[in-house]
Amino acid sequence: MKFAAVDIGSNAIRFQITSILKHNEIFNFKKLEYVRFPLRLGQDVFQFNKISPEKAEKFVKLMKTFKMLLELYEVDDYIFCATSAMRESTNGKEIAERVKKEVGISIDIIDGDQEADLINAVLFNELDEKSYIHIDVGGGSTELNIFVNKNKVAAQSFKIGSVRRLNKLDAPEEWNRMEKWVSDNISKAEKPVYAIGTGGNIGKIYELANLSRSKDLKPSIKIDKIEGVQKQVAAMTYEDRIHVLNLNPDRADVIVPASDIYISVMRYAGAKEMLVPELGLKDGLIQMLFRRNMLDVNQVTIINTNKFPK
Question: How would DSSP label each residue in 34-76?
């Protein structure tokens, strides 16, 4: 079977097709296609509360392109999900209705709790008996979850994200609320507390720290390494970030604001080290599609292969 998931974020839109292969009761998730398109919907929404006509037109064209890919790959099931930019936009539902009418695709505009639950579905395999604070940084929002012995004991979404921070639209009151929430809830976790970071920026920070990934070891990075990468990137011009560090243009300007969020939450929680698994909302969506199309999924083993960059 083939499943497709589209994550309509605030900084970019991600499209993924995954083939599900079965061998001896083991299901292998093989990624066939991955497209990350830099359409920054949050740039409009967080400043003007709506998506501009120009970006709306480009968005509809992109949805038509994805629909064509669904047909070419002969996908069995798919889902399109939008997060903070579209849910906060005054014309987000209107644009979603237009896509449904012109393209024949329904877009689910989900809230922060639903977004966190979908990511947690795939994050569970990374957990053990330790205490973790999960930090998922998007363009418009940050989702925090606290896990103790594989159980989620607290969760909250905050209107703090890389695009908001880049444009100085992250309210100090929201930062204070986030710090207080972590302070009030981290006592539920036994020390030491470790962080888990998801989102495209932490994956790139990990890469810039020259850390390698091993099949046998969980990828992790110390907070001082994150701070070192932030300092290195912040000292460079936007052009040098693109040409020297080989960052995408829409990554080069948000990576420093995003690192502020990861570092701040780790400090609030007293976490000195962060796991950096290669997963995100799109992976949670693929697993949701798998579960709604398969029977007895709790009795199977799932293996993910051929990971693409976020």
Answer: EEEE---HHHHHHHHSS--HHHHHHHHHHHHHHHHHHHHTT-S
Q: DSSP strand E in the chain: where? A: 2-8, 13-23, 26-37, 77-82, 107-109, 131-137, 142-148, 151-158, 193-198, 220-222, 273-275, 301-305
State mean pLDDT over 12-19. Answer: 96
How many angstroms separate the CA atoms of 37 and 160, rounded?
Answer: 22
| Domains with residue ranges and CATH for the chain | 2-110+281-305 (3.30.420.40), 128-275 (3.30.420.150)
pLDDT in tens, 54-111: 999 999 999 999 999 999 999 999 999 999 999 999 999 999 999 999 999 999 999 9
State the Cα–Cα distance between residues 273 and 117, nearest whole angstrom.
23
Cβ contacts of 155-160, under 8 Å, gap ≥ 24: 155/113, 155/116, 156/181, 156/185, 157/111, 157/112, 157/113, 157/115, 157/116, 159/84, 160/261
